[in-house]
Amino acid sequence: MTTHSLSGREREKDEEEEERRRRRDEEEEEEEGEEEEEEEEEEEEEEKEREGRGEVEGKGEEGEGRNREEKEEEEEDEEEGK
Asked: How many independent structural domains does the chain possess?
């Protein structure tokens, strides 16, 4: 059946359905974008927290000293193991 053979009401229903689908798709895309943005923000926050605790090498006020100590301990352990 072609668009030409549809009655005016049927054509209107099809257009309304298409519009609903389009809006739903747009809303889903927007939600996905917001979720991705939230995840990125959470990851950045977690990294900042790790930096503050010295879990990220060479970052954080106290973390730098702790990482250096941990490296030295690891090197000593490796030397003792040889």
From this structure: 1
